[in-house]
Amino acid sequence: MKNRSTTFIIILSVFACFGLLSRAQAQGGEGDIGGGNTVEGFDALANVTTGGFNTALGWGSLFGNTDAFFNTGVGAGTLVFSDGAQNTAAGAGALLLNTTGSFCNAFGVNALNANDSGFFNNAHGRGALFSNFDGSQNNAFGDLALTSNVSGSFNTGIGDDALFSCTSSSNTAVGDEAGNSIVDGSNNVCIGAGAGVGIVSASNQVAIGSAALGPFADISNTCFIASIYNQPVSDAGSAQDTYVDQFNVLGFLPSSQRFKHDIQPMDKASEALYGLKPVTFKYNGDKTDRTQYGVIAEEVAKVAPDLVFRDKNGDVQTVRFEQIGAMLLNEFLKEHKKVEEQQASIAELKSTVGVLTAQLKEQAAQIQKVSAQLEVNKSAPQVVANKP
What stretches of the chain adopt beta strand conformation (E)? Predict the structure, then answer.
């Protein structure tokens, strides 16, 4: 910031010399000078012609304005070269180099200092949007917020040093030093003091209460949220599994019939599980080198294409493990039914065996009875009659 302050002082000094040498009698009017214009200060609104309803308070304020309307400059060097309309600058050097930019508001020393043709910019704070040249629709609130932005548009930086290094577009940072490392990344959202620090060129990142850390710190389409890892839920009884869809909507998977159509029995579809090949493995980025258990998504895709997720390029990413649970349930119920049928058959066989056993016992008893009778008959004494 030291170099920028030096530049600002040099510009004002040169302008002062130019004003003293080129004008034998400088504009020294004060108060209402006609056309709804109000001035106070050396060379303030010195060149106005048809412009009206402008207010210039301070040395050189609105010096270059000729035919623009509704501008307000309060402070030395505010809107010096501007001929744009409906700008408001308060603070030494605010909107100093603006020429045709319109609908800008700068509050603070050097706020929007270098803006030339950008419009609809708002800067509140020392050096806020200091380097902006032709970027438009930016909002900077805080000392040095968006101070490096030159041509980026649609950025919002709220907090000291928020989006300090940003030169790209469509970033939002709320909090002191939030997103201050972003240079050319776009569409990033950083909320919280120091949030998103670590993002440089990545886009579409979200950082809430957390710096961008780890191997994905500067990888696009990544989300960082503080205070959720390794934290138990406050009410375990009401906890639900959470998923995210392609529209970035966070929620649970509904199971009610009212959310479904074309409902059919799963039948043999779950038999695809028998073609899966469980493996053990280790993740490339796992510093703990911990052994994991699972399947390989590409192998699953060969057996059951509907069980995998693919990215926008069609490349396999992961397995829909929540579906496997339902398939396992179907296979369990099928096996359970088989077991029940087998148990029924066994029970029937037991009943039949019981009947046969009883019959055999009865037959054995009858046989035993007959055998006993025969034995009695066999052992009875025979009487021989004597003949006279």
Answer: 31-34, 37-40, 55-57, 72-74, 88-90, 105-107, 122-124, 139-141, 156-158, 172-174, 189-191, 206-208, 223-225, 243-244, 250-251, 279-281, 292-294, 308-310, 316-319
Coarse DSSP helix, strand, coil percentages of the chain, rounded to the nearest 5 percent: 30, 15, 55
d(CA 228, CA 286): 19
Q: Which is nearest to 43 in space by CA: 63, 23, 22? A: 63
pLDDT digits (tens, 9 = 90+) for 64-121: 999 999 999 999 999 999 999 999 999 999 999 999 999 999 999 999 999 999 999 9
pLDDT, tens digit (0-9, with 9 covering 90-100), for 239-297: 999 998 888 899 999 999 999 999 999 999 999 999 999 999 999 988 899 999 999 99
| Tokens 């796992």, residue located | 286
Residues 342, 335 contacting (CB under 8 angstroms)? no
The CATH architecture one would assign to domain 262-374 is Orthogonal Bundle (1.10)
Per-residue b/e over 34-52, b at no fewer than 16 CB within 10 Å? eeebbbbbbbbbbebeebe
Identify the H or E element spanning 365.
helix 321-379
Tell me the percentage of the chain whose pLDDT exceeds 90: 74
| 135/119 Cα distance (integer angstroms) | 7
Every domain of the chain and the residues it spans: 262-374
